[in-house]
Amino acid sequence: MTIREVASFAAGEWVAPGQGARDIASAVTGEVIASAGNSALDAQAMLDHARGTGGPALRKLTFHDRARMLKALAQYLDRHKQVLYDLSFDTGATQADHLIDIDGGIGTLFVFASKGRREMPDGHVYLDGEVEQLSRGGTFLGQHVCTPLQGVGVHINAYNFPVWGMLEKLAPTILAGVPAIVKPATSTCYVTEACVRLMLEADILPAGAVQLVAGGLGDMLDRLTCQDVVSFTGSAETALKLRSAPHILENSVRFVAEQDSLNASVLGPDVDPDSPEFDLFVKEVCREMTAKAGQKCTAIRRIIAPEDRVEAVIEAVSARLGKTTIGDPRKETTRMGALVSASQKRDVLDKVAVLEREAERVHGDPEDFTVDGADAGKGAFLPPMLFHCADPDRARRIHDTEAFGPVSTVMGYRDLDHAMALANRGEGSLVTSVITHDGDVARQAVLGAGAYHGRIYLNDRTSMKESTGHGSPLPHMVHGGPGRAGGGEELGGVRGVTHYMQRTAVQGSPDHLAAIAGQWVPGAAEVTGPAHPFTRRFGELSIGETLHTEAREVTLADIEHFAEFTGDTFYAHMDAKAAERNPFFPGRVAHGYLLISFAAGLFVEPAEGPVLANTGLDNLRFMKPVEPGDSVKVRLTVKKKTPRTEDYGEVRWHVTMTNQDDERVAEYDLLTMNAY
Ligand code: NDP
């Protein structure tokens, strides 16, 4: 059998294993299948390549350009993922596990691609929040903006997700405009290397955007600056060692850590063994114990059930685990494959010995179990093991020892407060689930445990068919947790992108802010166009282009006509006495909807033209009532332009309606689709 040489991709060149290379064994057969690592790798050259070539090329592109690259990358990987499936079996993973790692990673790219296009501008500066009014007259404003860091994201990944682990960090990094150096865990780096080869083959990313270190990082972390980010996933011990290095501390190098986590799942006090939530709970627990052979950062390590239902839980979970076929992950009948390596298996058994001091093993015997289609003596196989801890209050190890395999401990609780206190004994975790059909239980759980957990997953009969599973971090939602879980945050949609950007509080005049953001803000210069803006194509319109309309009087007859016509005969418009009793109104007033209809009547150019559709209003506010006899006029300004498809783009117009005294009566953003 040939041994696969896992190369690094450094400064644009593939570098084969060399001095200091490590052997990698198959999780299934124990045979050496690959070798990786080269102590001659030039860390400084890699950093220079990322900072000097990858970063500038990425920063030239807009968020939308980079989002499109992520989508193209996802499509390419999706077409070629069979290569990754084939290789991944040797990590001990089954086909179902590949869906989590490989398809999950590709799905994450797709979500970031879509969020980048929908939630970020087609520009270079991401605006964080609204403009802050810092002066009475509106000539001095504030705006938080995010710009890409000018360094590199060094991604240190765990062995359990060689593809997802890379892509979930890469997607937000690239979208931010920052190059990455990926360092996968050595034991499964052959899968990551194959994925990087596919990405380079696709020829979508600019040179220097992604590099790979197979094996050790050398002294790379000692060469980082305040413009770099280390994103780490792995053990608490390694995280502590790396993040506390003097160079990292001295330079305030951002260090995002996702590490050990004693996740819990709580069976709600409302759930009886014959309710649908009970089965759901048992299924989720068993799935989390056996998926990836329990080597998931989010796996359920502690099963917390009402004291009088502990026995039923043990019985049901044991029965289900008993049906798990353990064996060669390539076999379709296999439900649980192997752990990643013999050393990981030893580590789990050592941790199991620690748990056994406080809990009794009630299911699964590591000395006596069947392995289908593989040699149990050679592969890193273990059976699922369930423990019961009778005194979880006095116990310590069950709350702080993460056996990173198919291992979980059941414990009883007296009431919901006690359940949450037990969940919080993990001292910070990635996820806790609560299976309950009672909204009050859900609320109390979030109030009691939210502070200790990065994610709270609730499930019941309503959501069980569509729910994504306790263990699945979703790209839309934050992944990470306080304390033992590392104190970091990843993913969470655009939040995850900003981890690779600097947030800067910018203060200045409206024109300063408009120039930086590429969008008009109230108070900035207005541009007078050569014709009515509705006659101008998307490409012709300038930011700040403004139309001031004529004024029109609002009469009592208008209000009554509108009321009769629409059926909106609310008293504030129709009943003078009642309206006067209302503290907000001087008497009968115009409908807000009448005002925005009049606004359209004032600014619209009726002839067929480049405006294709009105797609909505944002941030509509009515500021001052309009009485019969008042007159209103409108200012319509091009605030922002966003290309959407090949044929049209979205124009965001700022609309301000004022009265005869120039007081603002209504303000909103109008969205239209305009032909190029
Ligand atoms: P490690 O912390 O040993 O390794 C994680 C990553 O850090 C790997 O890429 C590893 O590379 C790298 N690394 C280790 N030492 C250094 C160093 N000095 N400088 C730079 N990089 C370094 O974790 P493992 O993957 O070996 O897993 C061990 C335990 O960690 C598990 O048993 C489990 O308890 C926990 N774990 C927790 C996870 C979670 O998300 N909660 C995920 C995975 C593991 P290399 O492989 O080359 O050593």
From TrEMBL:
Q: Where is this region: Disordered?
A: 464-491
The entry's keywords: Oxidoreductase
Q: Which GO molecular function annotation, any one, does this entry have?
A: oxidoreductase activity, acting on the aldehyde or oxo group of donors, NAD or NADP as acceptor
Q: Which CDD domains match?
A: ALDH_MaoC-N (cd07128)
Pfam families found in the cross-reference section: Aldedh, MaoC_dehydratas
Q: What is this protein called?
A: Phenylacetic acid degradation bifunctional protein PaaZ
Q: Which domain of life is it from?
A: Bacteria
- MaoC-like domain mapped to chain residues: 543-652
Q: Where is the composition biased (Gly residues)?
A: 480-491
Q: Which species?
A: Rhodosalinus sediminis
Name the InterPro entries for this protein: Ald_DH/histidinol_DH, Ald_DH_C, Ald_DH_N, Aldehyde_DH_dom, HotDog_dom_sf, MaoC-like_dom, PaaN-DH
